[in-house]
Amino acid sequence: MEKTEGYEEKIECQFDTFCKTVLRNCAKNIQNQEKRRKEKTKSLELLTQTELSQLQVCDTYESDYICIKVLDHHIHIEDVALAKGIETLSKRKQEIIIFSFFFGLKSKEIGSLLNLSESTVSEHKRKALKELKGFMEENTDGSQSKKDTIFSNCPCCRRKR
Question: Quick check: 151 pLDDT over 70?
Answer without folding.
Answer: no
